[in-house]
């Protein structure tokens, strides 16, 4: 019986405080700045463990955005660059690369909230 851990360290993103871990590898083209990307995403407030959004919840659908150009929070924007179709990645986004000291009370994100996102790339155009 192996007692070897399968835990993988979080990886850093140059110039960012957000870190990531590849959960499931993808293949093919990678997300680059300016491309239109469609993803499944689930966000949890690390401070409380409360899920605030998921595209997989009933009534929700995949989310599409333009990558790397500031259309989403910085940690997400930078954390998804380089992902491949089919890849699932966990992002740990500190407040200053998320919703900051104001938080996002309507979604239950407190001031200074640290975010855990799991992102799965469905398509890149």
Task: Summarize this structure as a short list of keywords or feature phrases.
two-stranded antiparallel ribbon; 9 strands; seven-stranded antiparallel beta sheet; mainly beta; 125 residues; 1 helix
Structure, described:
By secondary structure, this protein is mainly beta. It contains one helix and nine strands, in the order ββββββαβββ. Strands 1, 2, 4, 5, 6, 8 and 9 form a seven-stranded antiparallel sheet that branches. A hairpin with a 6-residue loop joins strand 1 and strand 2. The model has no long low-confidence stretch (mean pLDDT 93).
SS-based class: mainly beta
Number of strands: 9
- Give the CA-based shape: globular
* Assembly category: single chain
For the report, how would you describe the main beta sheet?
A: 7 strands, antiparallel
Strand content: 35-45%
Distance between the termini: 45 Å
The pLDDT mean sits at 93
Q: In terms of per-residue confidence, which ranges show pLDDT below 50 for 5 or more consecutive residues?
A: none
How many helices? The count is 1
Rounded to the nearest angstrom, the radius of gyration is 15 Å
Helix content: under 10%
Sequence of secondary-structure elements? EEEEEEHEEE
Topology:
Elements lengths: L10 E2 L6 E6 L2 E4 L5 E10 L4 E5 L8 E4 L7 H6 L4 E2 L2 E6 L21 E10 L1
Antiparallel strand pairs: 1-2, 2-8, 3-7, 4-5, 4-6, 4-9, 8-9
Short description:
With 125 residues, this protein is mainly β. The chain has one helix and nine strands, in the order E-E-E-E-E-E-H-E-E-E. The radius of gyration is 15 Å and the shape is globular.
């Amino acid at each position: 019986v192996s007692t070897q851990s399968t835990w993988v360290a979080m990886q850093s993103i140059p110039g960012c405080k957000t870190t990531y871990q590849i959960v499931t590898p993808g293949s093919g083209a990678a997300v680059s700045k300016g491309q239109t990307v469609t993803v499944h995403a689930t966000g949890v407030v690390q401070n409380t463990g409360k899920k605030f959004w998921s595209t997989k919840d009933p009534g929700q659908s995949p989310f599409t955005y333009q990558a790397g150009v500031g259309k989403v929070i910085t940690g997400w924007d930078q954390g998804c660059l380089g992902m491949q179709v089919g890849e699932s990645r966990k992002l740990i986004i500190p407040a200053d690369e998320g919703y900051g000291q104001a938080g996002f009370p309507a979604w239950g994100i407190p001031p200074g909230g640290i975010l855990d996102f799991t992102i799965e790339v469905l398509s890149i155009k």
